[in-house]
Design the sequence.
């Protein structure tokens, strides 16, 4: 694959940014510095070299991840491509906790990136507002 890093060394901060766990590489490096990225329970530095098969615990603002490196990616690509370079091994209870939080904190606003309401949804909204 063109997007795989060959035999070159790949830093963990660059990898976490490339697979889209962090919005910026700086944020990924800061997470490493603050001890929010761990390999086998030990905090790792931003300069740590990533190897296929490594399993990292990553704590982002949104959630906790447990990922296993399945491919090396050295540049940012679309999310649909990026997910092919790691395996999400996050425990089910963590995923359920996130779903519960999302359900509890529903504000009534439409979710972003889903477009305008359909005609039926608009009629339902108008009926509700009367």
Sequence:
């Amino acid at each position: 694959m063109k997007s795989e890093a060959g035999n070159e060394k790949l830093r963990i901060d660059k990898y976490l940014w490339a697979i889209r766990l962090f919005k910026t590489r700086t944020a990924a490096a800061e997470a490493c510095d603050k001890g929010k990225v761990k390999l086998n329970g030990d905090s790792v530095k931003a300069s740590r070299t990533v190897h296929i098969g490594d399993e990292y615990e990553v704590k982002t603002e949104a959630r906790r991840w447990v990922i296993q490196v399945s491919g090396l990616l050295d540049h940012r690509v679309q999310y649909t491509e990026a997910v092919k370079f790691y395996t999400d091994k996050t425990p089910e209870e963590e995923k359920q906790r996130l779903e519960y939080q999302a359900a509890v904190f529903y504000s009534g606003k439409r979710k972003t990136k889903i477009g305008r309401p359909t005609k039926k949804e608009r009629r339902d909204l108008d009926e509700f507002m009367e």
Notes: The radius of gyration is 19 Å. The chain has a mean pLDDT of 83. The longest helix spans residues 92-104. The domain at 12-129 is CATH 3.10.290.10 (Structural Genomics Hypothetical 15.5 Kd Protein In mrcA-pckA Intergenic Region; Chain A).
